[in-house]
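Priority: medium. Attachment 1 of 2:
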């Protein structure tokens, strides 16, 4: 297929692929938001253990599967010119893992707490590593279907997700406030499982148009050896990754916001559900804002501004004396998370050659992934030895450093436009 035919085919299926990617992106984001590792999943696990290490394993597993595994998946999928089947397969495993979360909650009705915890972590592993397969393939399709105005598309998709998530979060609050554990979580995971299975359909309706220049497959070891040359060839990409690595240490305390609220500030299930609601509301507003702002001034600026928001979050947690005082923290966390999601998603694509988008997306996530995997565990260790307040102060200093780094050392990359129909 030559470039002219490719552009014509993209134009032919643009509306269909727009709807497919819109609803797939929104549904995936809804599930990710509702299964927030610092709110819902930590709260569920807190009924079985008070260990901060066990809580820290949740974001660690999600990061290891979602991000670190992407480089290995990208090396494997490079041998396939058409990647839709792999994308759909990964989507099926990812969404079907909600059934295992439901099984974990159902097992909690029994006398042995080992089984629900074991099934919980099994569901988490399947969910995370199947998302590692899906991520680069999804980014590849988005980059080619939306070579421009990508920020607005993603902002609208995440806005749609936030609207659904808000309703789900409100229902979650009512369930947790009125239905005793574990039956409240059984109802919650049952509803989520039905939604997740239905959400597989948008990926199945996508029409892939193979790019004229095929991706060159190579063994994973060859890919690893190529990393230094990629960093030299794309210096803006390398500096942006460095800033992402530093901010992972600033985020160590965020994994324990809800844990701190429950164990120290004595937050109830209603408080935790409200945290989810205000988190979603913050993200709801942020999605449209960041999408428009990023398309106008560049997503590197959005990336930099989010560090300042993270700094304010830490200050507010240090000042909090009650569970209610954390409400604005979770509002800001919604802005923070969506700012990072939109900026990172766009910046991952910005410097990549069109035929190598899956690799560049996977590489950026794989480099930062190990740090995101271990930093919650490091944070748990620091908090256990020095106390959570000391961890917050440490993270405050790291945010200050990264604001300086991102403002002075990192420059916006040159955006590459993938030739396709807009």
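Attachment 2 of 2:
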């Amino acid at each position: 297929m030559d470039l002219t035919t490719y552009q014509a085919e993209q134009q032919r299926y643009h509306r269909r692929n727009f709807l497919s990617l819109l609803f797939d992106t929104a549904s995936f984001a809804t599930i990710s938001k509702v299964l927030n590792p610092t709110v819902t999943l930590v709260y569920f696990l807190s009924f079985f253990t008070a260990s901060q290490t066990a809580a820290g394993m949740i974001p660690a597993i999600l990061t290891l599967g979602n991000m670190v595994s992407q480089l290995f998946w990208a090396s494997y999928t490079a041998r396939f010119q058409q990647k839709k089947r792999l994308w759909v397969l990964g989507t099926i495993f990812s969404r079907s893992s909600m059934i295992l979360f439901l099984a974990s909650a159902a097992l909690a009705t029994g006398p042995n707490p080992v089984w629900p915890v074991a099934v919980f972590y099994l569901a988490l592993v399947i969910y995370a590593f199947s998302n590692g397969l899906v991520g680069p393939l999804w980014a590849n399709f988005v980059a080619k279907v939306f070579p421009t105005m990508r920020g607005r598309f993603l902002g609208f998709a995440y806005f749609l997700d936030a609207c659904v998530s808000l309703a789900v979060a409100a229902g979650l609050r009512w369930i947790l406030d009125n239905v005793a554990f574990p039956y409240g979580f059984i109802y919650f995971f049952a509803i989520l499982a039905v939604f997740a299975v239905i959400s597989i359909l948008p990926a199945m309706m996508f029409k892939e148009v193979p790019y004229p220049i095929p991706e060159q497959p190579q063994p994973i070891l060859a890919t690893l050896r190529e990393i230094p040359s990629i960093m030299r060839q794309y210096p803006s990409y390398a500096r942006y990754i460095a800033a992402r690595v530093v901010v992972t240490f600033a985020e160590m305390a965020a994994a324990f916001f809800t844990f701190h609220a429950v164990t120290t500030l004595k937050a109830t299930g209603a408080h935790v559900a409200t945290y989810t609601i205000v988190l979603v509301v913050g993200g709801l507003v942020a999605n449209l804002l960041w999408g428009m702002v990023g398309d106008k001034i560049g997503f590197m600026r959005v990336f930099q501004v989010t560090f300042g928001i993270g700094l304010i979050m830490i200050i507010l947690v240090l000042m909090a004396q009650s569970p209610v005082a954390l409400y604005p923290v979770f509002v800001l966390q919604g802005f923070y998370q969506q700012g990072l999601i939109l900026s990172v998603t766009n910046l991952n694509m910005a410097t990549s050659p069109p035929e190598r988008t899956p690799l560049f997306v996977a590489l950026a996530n794989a480099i930062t992934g190990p740090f995101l995997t271990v930093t919650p565990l490091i944070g748990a260790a620091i908090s256990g030895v020095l106390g959570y307040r000391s961890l917050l102060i440490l993270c405050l200093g790291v945010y200050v450093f990264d604001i300086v780094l991102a403002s002075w050392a990192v420059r916006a990359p040159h955006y590459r436009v993938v030739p396709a129909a807009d």
